[in-house]
Amino acid sequence: MTEAPAKTPKVPMAKAITMGLRRAMEADPKVLLMGEDIGALGGVFRVTDGLLKDFGPDRVVDTPLAESGILGTAIGLAMRGYRPVCEIQFDGFIFPAFDQITTQLAKMTFRSHGLLQMPVVIRVPYGGGIGAVEHHSESPEALFAHTAGLRIVSPSNPADAFAMIQQAIASPDPVMFFEPKSRYWDKAELDTDVPADTSAHAIEVSLHSARVVRAGTDLTIAAYGPTVTTALAAAESAAAEGRSIEVIDLRSISPIDFDTLTASVQRTGRLVVAHEAPVFFGSGAEIAARVTERCFFALEAPVLRVGGFHAPYPPANIEEEYLPNLDRLLDAVDRALAY
Amino acid sequence: MTEAPAKTPKVPMAKAITMGLRRAMEADPKVLLMGEDIGALGGVFRVTDGLLKDFGPDRVVDTPLAESGILGTAIGLAMRGYRPVCEIQFDGFIFPAFDQITTQLAKMTFRSHGLLQMPVVIRVPYGGGIGAVEHHSESPEALFAHTAGLRIVSPSNPADAFAMIQQAIASPDPVMFFEPKSRYWDKAELDTDVPADTSAHAIEVSLHSARVVRAGTDLTIAAYGPTVTTALAAAESAAAEGRSIEVIDLRSISPIDFDTLTASVQRTGRLVVAHEAPVFFGSGAEIAARVTERCFFALEAPVLRVGGFHAPYPPANIEEEYLPNLDRLLDAVDRALAY
Amino acid sequence: MDAHTAAPDAELVQLITPEGVRVENPTYSPLVAGLTADDLRGFYRDMVLVRSFDAEATSLQRQGELALWAQCLGQEAAQIGSGRALAPHDFVFPAYREHGVALTRGLDLRKILHLFRGYKHGGWDPAEHNFHLYTLVIGSHSLHATGYAMGVQRDGNVGTGDPARDTAVVAYFGDGATSQGDVSEALTFSAVNNAPVVFFCQNNQWAISVPTARQSIVPIANRAPGFGVPSVRVDGNDVLAVHAVMLEALERARSGAGPSFIEAFTYRMGAHTTSDDPTRYRTAAEEDYWRARDPIDRLRTHLVNEGLVDDAFFEALQAEADELAEATRTYCRGLGEPPATEMFEHIYSVPHPLVAEERAWFEEYEESFLPEGGAS
Amino acid sequence: MDAHTAAPDAELVQLITPEGVRVENPTYSPLVAGLTADDLRGFYRDMVLVRSFDAEATSLQRQGELALWAQCLGQEAAQIGSGRALAPHDFVFPAYREHGVALTRGLDLRKILHLFRGYKHGGWDPAEHNFHLYTLVIGSHSLHATGYAMGVQRDGNVGTGDPARDTAVVAYFGDGATSQGDVSEALTFSAVNNAPVVFFCQNNQWAISVPTARQSIVPIANRAPGFGVPSVRVDGNDVLAVHAVMLEALERARSGAGPSFIEAFTYRMGAHTTSDDPTRYRTAAEEDYWRARDPIDRLRTHLVNEGLVDDAFFEALQAEADELAEATRTYCRGLGEPPATEMFEHIYSVPHPLVAEERAWFEEYEESFLPEGGAS
Ligand SMILES: Cc1ncc(C[n+]2csc(CCOP(=O)(O)OP(=O)(O)O)c2C)c(N)n1
Ligand SMILES: Cc1ncc(C[n+]2csc(CCOP(=O)(O)OP(=O)(O)O)c2C)c(N)n1
Ligand SMILES: [Mg+2]
Ligand SMILES: [Mg+2]
């Protein structure tokens, strides 16, 4: 998507995150990484590869096997002035830490009337489509977005991943960083030598801004993380049939950049939201409700949602049918345009 | 609400639940209660009062202080053929059990291809308005509704509480039973001698049916648990100004009885949803999204939501302003009618 | 009398008997050998003051001024004995009834009322006295303390030998809390990191209505060594013994020798909170038994027997205690209510569009109730 | 060589040395005194069979037939020794590499492939062999086992003295799992309820890349007594010793004497799973050290030295093992894919309107892809 000089190397998203972590650790000695198998192994996805060697075991901490323990100690470290970046090995294993995240991490700043900041990042490889076994393909972002005090983002491409992880780490508020593991190996040209903009403005605005990744006039597709690529493919495919589809990469799930979203829908009059998480009580619900409230008279069709079914994530053999794939997206586009 | 012969005693909701538990325990020796302080103390709200004495410590189990332990052992008991009813002492203390509920309890039937049933009930006194300290006034229902495999209900009055707790216990699926603690002491005439209908039909349909508790033509208010009373008050108040408001007690949050809801909205053309939980990613989002999809051409105004703000539940001194009180509901009604 | 009300077994560290008699302990007596009469009077003073405060808060709750109150009645020795062993730069993570510890940290006790009045969730600046906010969610803060201690290690503030620098972290919690997975995880994380943290468990024999025997069938102190954390059981009603074991544990932490666990065996003489009714689950005989073992009486007897106090001391102290109660009452009654817009503040440190939007809506909405023309 | 690769300390219960020599243990030898040569050959057979199965599954994964495989290579003695001590009516909660235990329960091992192929999440009927589904979420099932055991108590199937009735429940998990709060809570709940459950921890010295020393600085077996649960450390590569300690623990459970904890000290000879690369975190020397202590070799040496086996035995067994591998391969390749609509099944036991609606939508949607007129 980004034009870059020919010499810029192509970097997969996983590597872009590694480099973002590296830049953040170089920029601030208080940044440290914690998680299961993030040291010698470099994480099961190798995202922390090489960091133990360069930053040592005090800053790249292989923790005991306990997610509540990871988050709980991260909170204490943050109180002491550190900036812990916690890796949860897989989406499905974040729930033992749910209490520490929801009740402690999210509320500490409020409880202390702003006296305590919580610069904690929780990295969560999430989503399906990689043929994994049970509990390794879930999309739990909506379960955290309901809770005030947390910020939730999800990059869809290497460049965003590289910049957003640094901004997330620089944020004084806790940030849940959902990494679409099915896109870990998608590459893009990226110069990882230049650290990202981590100014106050970048943290407040850039980190949480949606981006129009393809302009269009007939219908808007809102996506984030793994579904952005699918949405672009759907737009491409629809273009062949003469339909002009705008694609928005939300990038942030809490807060949601409703200004960008509603500006688009005011023009296109139609919105389809795509995410891998189940539709019922998913992000699409909030988006549909709020966009409808804001664009009531502009909407030509109800906001349609494409996502997982009201079912546990199924066995890998049939996950393709569960996921909001290209066909499912196109079907929703057709239905929305048919109004 | 219910007409009953004069001799029927008035029973507060808390007592109605006690009696429902008693009837369920009498009906099935496999039913047992587990939780913190539910034995000699009878629970901090006295809902299990007297049950230890009558059913003994094997069926009314004071557990160690660990919510994950309570849910985890309840799952094992269910596998052995028991029907555990777990009490979580307060809403804000359910999160240590989040993993066991979301990843184990909700998925066990699916994982076992229907070979294992999970007749576990989780009773959660929830909601605010009782002047309590931190963590004792939350409404976490939306955090569970996103997960398939769970059923979630919330009674708004003693009669429903009495019947629904028995149906929940008879359900082979796990049921989260959210008890609006601000309504615990609201009384209604109720004959608790007659056990509830726990037929298959009752469990499938009655337990999860919404109910029109007041008919109206201009606008529908959907509420559940603690906000039903507020909604009825709002309808009453609006009636004085010549507005006819229909009030629906949803009773079930997962599944949601969209048939009853959309039938109403098809007639009234306007919907306001009221719950205590924060609006952002709350139940109202799902309701707004789906009702809008189903009633797109009937809606005269966007679905409006009234609920908690995107903030941790505030100190009790200012909770009245946080809660969707009568004025806030009337304000939303006005706004919806102004479209 | 139930098993759990039996007199503590002989393995409890004790330096002053229930009869007020000083006893020798080869390990622990030397640790408190340097304490002066002034120190002992100071212990006594703190215990009396916090009891006065606690009683006043209880009565304020009865008067409707507080939503709830959690008394520390009976646990004063455990709290003052341990709190007085701390250095100012040590950091404390209390549960919710550590009013005695708060006193030793120098916190203005009246700020504790904020939380229990429903006025604020917090109420004080944790950094001011290195005393964290109360944590109501049982056990969670044991992990925060452990993480904080891991930060202390990274700051190089352990094992330097410089008493102004070496820092210990303390987590206070109850017997019930030991059943929470978080507390076990804190033991694991502290042990494998050799973190400078002390887990101080006040076993007051009850978790609301549940006796300790329902949390553990062996002494609570046995728990920690299985994680590699050394532990000790101390008579929690003996302020001197508590002080000694705490000094030892803090020194271990600060010197880099790692975490420790203290079980202070005491008794919750009051109700769990003002909402509780202990008559439902324990006998008057049990309460009487423990009332006769009141930790304040024990120290008083000792001080009197040793001739370390006189009437003037008691009178002055009583006046001070009355003054504290009076100041507490006045402060509480004057608190008023915070502005409702506080609920939109400090949810995030960085501006947040949804919060801003909801706040703006709320302010406009509130203004709509002002008498016409009344809005500024 | 790192500390954690050092030879197990002398406190491990051992009945056959690594050199294959039988040693006496006053407590445990009597428990296995009744075992016949046939029994020993049966142990050996099971170990060889599961290793053959395990190797075949590993190679099926390499061929792309499985999404993942978790080997039990090196842990056969721990699994067969314990599994063979169970009664049919005992109930087992495995983690995810208990293929050896599965074999002893009589499970058709090929059904284990369902999960690892991404074909089903479960794959067998837990009731058929009293063997629960694999649990991938570390530690969770320790609580399920405890609850199940509480159910057994309520059924009156403990301490009756009737061997056909008295029932034990077993939870299998690894060294890493002991750090999870759930496992500690399971120890608490089992102890205070005196539940008939055995916690069987295979300490294979690694949790993926994390050595046991990062989970506990003291032997894992030390953990349980702090909760009031007796424990024992056994040489997990000694099938006989494992069998003996398991018999003891099961008997304790069934008789009503309560829970036990077994630490079987063994070694994960393979990678964590087929996705893992152990060269990143452990040395070849360490792997060589443990390869030389292979549990199957140990029993083989013993059987040969005692003259309990002959060539015919080995040949027949090899044929059986090859047959199992062959059958596994064939079965796996023939599995195909489940119909996509399976994802709408058994989400609930009672009909559910949203599931029905989504399923109906999906079926209609799928039909729209059929060639025109192709829909039935
Ligand atoms: C996670 C959680 N579960 C339940 C509660 C409700 N609760 C408040 S205090 C308490 C008992 C605590 O007992 P203990 O740890 O012994 O402390 P004590 O009150 O005796 O000082 C319980 C169950 C809670 N606050 N947090
Ligand atoms: C709650 C949870 N967190 C993380 C994981 C990822 N994970 C899978 S296996 C494993 C290591 C388990 O080690 P151990 O308990 O020793 O068992 P072993 O694999 O050695 O048999 C980890 C971290 C998981 N499955 N569940
Ligand atoms: Mg207690
Ligand atoms: Mg292991």
Would you give an account of this structure?
- The complex is a heterotetramer, with two copies of chain A (339 residues) and two copies of chain C (376 residues).
- With 339 residues, chain A is of the alpha/beta class.
- Chain A has two domains: 11-188, Rossmann fold, CATH 3.40.50.970; 211-337, 3-Layer(aba) Sandwich (Rossmann fold).
- Chain A contains 13 helices and 14 strands.
- In chain A, strands 3-2-4-5-7-6-12 form a seven-stranded mixed beta sheet, sandwiched between helices.
- In chain A, helix 7 links the parallel strand 6 and strand 7.
- The longest helix of chain A is centred in the N-terminal third of the chain and has 15 residues, at 13-27.
- The radius of gyration of chain A is 19 Å and the shape is globular.
- The mean pLDDT of chain A is 97.
- Chain C is an alpha/beta fold and 376 residues long.
- Chain C folds into two domains: 3-334, Rossmann fold (3-Layer(aba) Sandwich), CATH 3.40.50; 339-376.
- Chain C has helices spanning 37-62, 76-83, 99-105, 112-117, 140-154, 181-193, 239-255, 284-291, 295-305, 311-333, 353-367, and strands at 91-93, 169-174, 197-203, 206-207, 210-211, 231-235, 260-265.
- Chain C has a five-stranded parallel beta sheet, sandwiched between helices. In chain C, strands 4-5 form a two-stranded antiparallel ribbon.
- In chain C, helix 1 packs antiparallel against helix 9 (295-305) and helix 1 (37-62) runs parallel beside helix 10.
- Chains in contact: A-B, A-C, A-D, B-C, B-D, C-D.
- Chains A and B meet through helix 4, helix 6 and helix 11 of A and helix 4, helix 6 and helix 11 of B.
- The site of one magnesium ion has 6 residues of chain D, from strand 4.
- One thiamine diphosphate sits between chains C (97, 136-138, 173-177, 204, 206-208, 268, 272) and B (36, 65, 89, 93, 96).
